[in-house]
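Possible race condition, two jobs.
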Amino acid sequence: MDAPIRVGVIGVGTMGGHHAGNLGYGQVSGATLQAVMDLDGELRAAVARRHGVDLQFDQTRDIIGHPEVDALLVAAPDGLHAKLAIECLEAGKPVFLEKPLATTVPDAERVVELETGIGHRMIQVGFMREFDRAHVEVKAEVDTGHHGRRLLFRNVHRNAHHPDARTIEDVVTNSMVHDIHSARWMMEDEIVEVYGQAVPDAGQDPGTAQLCLLQVRFRNGALGLLEFNTKAGYGYEVDVEISCEDGVITSHTVGTPVVRTRETLRQAIAPEYTGRFGTAYQDELVAWAASLEAEKPTGPSAWDGYMAMVVVEACIESVKTGQPISIPEFEIPSLYR
């Protein structure tokens, strides 16, 4: 395909707007922003005007079915992801789907069943840490084999602020799903047991979580510790560490200068996620566009999204019951091997 892939973006709020910007400002080689869809007419028009886009829609079926749209990027609310992914597949159009794949395991399973029935991968899920240099470099070092077996995975994921109390379901499904996928990807193994605990938001219902801690056990016996803080107060930070038989490999993602002045030592930290993962968001779309051009799928698959949701639901159950939850082993469909 000599011409760039014409992408339609469904949902142009915070995340969708960021993706639309990367496409519209020419940051994604091999792809261009062709159309936008959002129920918010003013927002939709503003994004279209900013990027010189003529095709605007307020119905998903219209943008999915439009003959001048080659592929879709879905950044709609989480609860619509599975439904929209299915509509894209049924229309025969590849889709970049923001995480999570779905908000329930049965919905995620329906997406996987449809894609496996088609016989080739059409979905890339937006687990952008696979394209983040810090994560990639840690994994590459571990993959050399020089440090022996992977023994422990640690992940910290801290937001600066959040205006409202968040439920444990929202925290794990929307945010910690990233950490869960990172654990599976970087440890190259499946999670078979989880134990979750949460600290409720101050003065809020016990069903909320300001901080959530997940302990996981992998199939090969390795362990994991995943921490998420909804409002740590100081900035946005995501780091990872893998302890091996012979060495510990740790990411350091704060690349700003260290300032020593007036009896203080300080270093600036990104205020929010687009600052921390801006390059990764761009690179995942570049890889997606290249995979469509080459007809060779890449990146996180629908199966990755499905397995992440299996672990998500087990974690939520564990937090609510106060008990460890075992996760059965699943046979990976041949499409995803």
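Job #2 (started ~2 s after job #1):
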Amino acid sequence: MATETSLGMDLDDPVTQHMRTECARLPVHLTAAEALAAIRENPPAGRVVYFYVVDEEDRLLGVVPTRRLLMSALDRKVGEMMIHPATCIPSTATVFDACEFFILYRLLAFPVVDAENRLLGVVDVELYTDELADLDRREASDDLFQLIGVKLQASQQESSFAGFQNRFPWLIANIAGGIMAAVLSGFFQAELEKVVALALFIPVVLALAESVSIQSVSLSLQRLHGRQPTLEAIFRKLQVEGGTGLFLGIASAACIAATAMVWLGQWKVALCLFGGISGGVTFAAVIGALIPNVLRYLQREPQVASGPIALAATDMMTLTMYFLLARWLFA
């Protein structure tokens, strides 16, 4: 998805389109005195935060902060005072990648280098502050709507029928999920009639799983902005999210099962709740992370489709595990 800011910057833009090509270079062989003299003779354009140390072929070797250069002994070599290796942004990076560098490393500027480590330019934080604030507002609103199957632009339609056309198709996933949930309940009607308490806890079992599923979808969408996932990255993410879901499921299930035990005094109901919630929440975390990543990997838009599909799949699997465990326990 290409996200554009109010100033026309696209998160998928190559960072090279927004860098400054004029940056403060210092040859590695200079002393501090020679470097200061060269700077006075040819003042660098714009605000200078860091000086970039390069070799004869303009390959980046390190970075010298302005304060360090000014405070160093005049006979000290630039190569001795530089910070090495320098944190660089590759020329293949996008604007989104550059924003992540500012957030992660909290520096005021980053050099941009090519595949051979030649210095191409500098990305300055001032170029991004206004855009980041605007993106934060836009994306937070857009993702909130898209998780429930609505695009923010579509939600602002003045025509009632146009709004219906844009919003109804993705509700079909929820309708299908609800119908299948009713069918599932019919298959396990004997268990529900035998132990009415099982039906009492269905809302909380589904609510916990759905909440975790939407959390996983939301986190995955945030990480996918401007990125194309690999199969290895997807598998690794599913492992982490599955572990997180398991911990969340056990903690939530323990609370609900303890409540059921104190309230009803039926250990089989408590065990059924513990197993159903633990399994349902674990599956919800995995499916919530899987669907956005798979859709993006297949070159499809994950923002609108992920939420409804994840919720429907979560409801189906959670109820199936809950009812199967009940059938086994109360056989």
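The chain has two domains: 15-127, 146-329.
Logs attached separately.
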